């Protein structure tokens, strides 16, 4: 299994990002652009979960591959998931320690998503939010997605939220619908193009929330896909 170069690059990139973003409010909910992006994503996720019959999360086992500092899993707690049913995997220990601090009753594993430390057919929902796009090596992306499918229960669903375009960040690889279909073959998919391009949201969210909503509804300026994947 290939892992070394891209994983070393990833570790350096996140170390570097910590310094670049020190003191920045770009990911704070007090930043109106970020608040807009997060709230719109949550609306999209809740609508999609409901459409797929996932309206009560309390008894579902949920895994996030590439959970980082636990922000997304914390959102699922707000959606009704039980803390003891939430699991997160990440390569980076310092991010996992933060996740554990936020969700002390949940399970975290410091592991490579290419070989998830769980039995096959364990989870009702397997999530990936902007983790696959942080991986430049196509073989690693393939291995991770195959393992996400392996740990999914029959009748379960994978939810992927990732951007298809991010010209500003060469350390990432946009994930388009055709690639989702290659990474998760023989599945049923629903693609929703969401998230007003962050540079536009940053310019407009303090001026007009309504204009941001209008532009996001047009979809042409949206940078991400929320995708449901069902084998
Ligand atoms: C952009 S962050 C997203 C974190 C989180 N999902 C969120 O949206 O807040 C991507 C995360 O994926 C993790 N990651 C990348 N490659 C991974 C791999 N092979 N195995 C496990 N985690 C990985 C990174 O360490 C990083 O924490």
Characterize the structure shown.
Strands 3-2-1-4-5-7-6 form a 7-stranded mixed β-sheet. It starts with a helix and ends with a strand. The chain has a single domain, classed as Vaccinia Virus protein VP39 (Rossmann fold). The protein has helices at residues 4-20, 32-51, 71-78, 93-102, 138-150, 177-183, 198-204, 209-218, and strands at 62-65, 86-90, 107-110, 123-129, 152-163, 188-196, 222-230. The chain is built from 8 helices and 7 strands, in the order ααβαβαββαβαβααβ. The chain is globular, with a radius of gyration of 17 Å. 40% of the residues lie in helices and 22% in strands. It has 231 residues and is α/β, with parallel strands linked by helices. Helix 2 (32-51) crosses helix 7. The relative contact order is 0.15. Strand 1 (62-65), helix 3 (71-78) and strand 2 (86-90) form a beta-alpha-beta unit. The structure holds S-adenosylmethionine. The site of S-adenosylmethionine has 22 residues, from helix 1, helix 3, strand 2 and helix 5. S-adenosylmethionine binds at residues 10, 14, 66-68, 71-72, 89-92, 95, 112-114, 129-131, 134-135, 140, 144.
Tell the overall outline: globular
CATH topology: Rossmann fold
Radius of gyration: 17 Å
Counting structural domains, the number is 1
| Order of helical and strand elements | HHEHEHEEHEHEHHE
Mean pLDDT: 95
CATH superfamily: Vaccinia Virus protein VP39
- Total DSSP helices: 8
CATH class: Alpha Beta
Task: Specify the biggest β-sheet.
Answer: 7 strands, mixed
Percent in strands: 15-25%
Major sheet: order of its strands? 3-2-1-4-5-7-6
Structural class based on helices, strands and sheet pairing: alpha/beta
Q: Work out the helicity level.
A: 25-40%
Low-confidence sequence ranges: none
